[in-house]
């Protein structure tokens, strides 16, 4: 398959490496400088066992993204609006996969002309160390569900790599996104506030008590999701990515804008629509907004 990937961040680079083993991948980066170093030196992926170089073709100009069998959009949710013009002119029969955190991008997807649109959630731990280097800190899975289109299209989806980069397909995209949103709403902000890796949230008894309290409140506004299963899933993510810095902690550490509006902001908006107050979540949200303001 010919696969285009938009976004040269940690997740975009991760998808580019593993998918390039079985498919022809083109990566679209924000800057020509990043595209140049990737074309010259490849993408270097390190994990606990080894360092591997992957040869991937990269461009910074959207028009270089020729006809593809699938295009994966791997930018932060707040960057989607800047891609609207380019996405609107892509062929309507080109399938798109969006792998953003939160649920705020759903309204954005409704405006697009493409016939087949997938949404996904990523449970891998990955850290970008250089423009062309990533460290795969925790093996996970990529969950995928159909947002729009015919279900038979799943048979045409690219093949993952069972042991290190598997895909899992879901029937209900809302439940899939809600489950990941609950996990992100707890793991991301708490690791950012406590300044710890993901694993510490379940290893430190005091942090774990806060985790459970925040999880209980957030999960209460998503009755579609079994809270016991959701908590177990969250613990599993913390274990599998225990050495990973969450994206929100990394953003705070490097003075970047966080995705707190797309994550906790979406939860609070959803709670407001349900007429439900979330005092703990509100406090955590305001704490992150304050930290974000001080770090940028």
Say what the CATH topology of the largest domain is: Rossmann fold
Secondary structure class reads alpha/beta
Helix count?
A: 11
Task: List segments where confidence is low: pLDDT < 50 over at least 5 consecutive residues.
Answer: none
Number of domains: 2
N-end to C-end Cα span:
40 Å
The named CATH superfamily of the largest domain: NAD(P)-binding Rossmann-like Domain
Share of helical residues? 40-55%
CATH architecture of the largest domain: 3-Layer(aba) Sandwich
* Arithmetic mean of pLDDT: 93
The best one-word shape is globular
- Count all strands and give the number: 12
Spatial strand sequence of the major β-sheet: 5-2-1-6-7-8-11-12
The CATH class of the largest domain, by name, is Alpha Beta
> What amount of the residues lies in strands?
15-25%
Q: Sketch the topology as an H/E string, one letter per element.
A: EHEHEEEEHEHEEEEEHHHHHHH
| Rg over CA atoms | 19 Å
The biggest sheet amounts to: 8 strands, mixed
GO molecular function: 2-dehydropantoate 2-reductase activity; NADP binding
Protein name: 2-dehydropantoate 2-reductase
Function: Catalyzes the NADPH-dependent reduction of ketopantoate into pantoic acid.
Pathway: Cofactor biosynthesis; (R)-pantothenate biosynthesis; (R)-pantoate from 3-methyl-2-oxobutanoate: step 2/2
């Amino acid at each position: 398959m010919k696969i285009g990937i938009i976004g040269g961040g940690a997740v975009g680079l991760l998808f580019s490496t593993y998918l390039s083993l079985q498919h022809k991948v083109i990566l679209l980066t924000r800057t020509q400088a990043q595209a140049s170093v990737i074309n010259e030196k490849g993408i270097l992926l390190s994990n606990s066992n080894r360092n591997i170089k992957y040869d991937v073709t990269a461009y910074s100009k959207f028009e270089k993204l020729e006809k593809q069998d699938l295009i994966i959009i791997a930018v932060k949710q707040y960057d989607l609006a800047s891609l609207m013009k380019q996405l609107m002119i892509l062929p309507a029969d080109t399938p798109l996969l969006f792998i953003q955190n939160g649920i705020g991008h759903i309204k954005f997807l409704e405006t697009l002309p493409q016939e087949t649109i997938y949404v996904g959630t990523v449970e891998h731990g990955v850290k970008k160390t250089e423009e062309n280097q990533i460290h795969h800190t925790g093996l996970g899975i990529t969950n995928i569900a159909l947002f729009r289109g015919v279900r038979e299209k799943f048979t045409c989806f690219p093949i993952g790599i069972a042991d290190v980069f598997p895909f899992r397909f879901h029937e209900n995209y809302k439940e899939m996104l809600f489950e990941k949103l609950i996990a992100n709403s707890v793991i991301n902000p708490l690791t950012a506030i406590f300044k710890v890796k993901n694993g510490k949230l379940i290893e430190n008894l005091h942090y774990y008590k806060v985790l459970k309290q925040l999880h209980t409140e957030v999960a209460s506004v998503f009755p579609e999701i079994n809270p016991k299963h959701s908590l177990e899933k969250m613990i599993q993510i913390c274990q599998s990515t225990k050495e990973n810095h969450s994206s929100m902690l990394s953003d705070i550490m490097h003075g970047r804008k966080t995705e707190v509006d797309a994550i906790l902001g979406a939860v609070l908006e959803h709670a407001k629509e349900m007429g439900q107050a979330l005092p703990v979540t509100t406090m955590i949200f305001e704490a992150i907004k304050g930290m974000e303001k001080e770090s940028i």
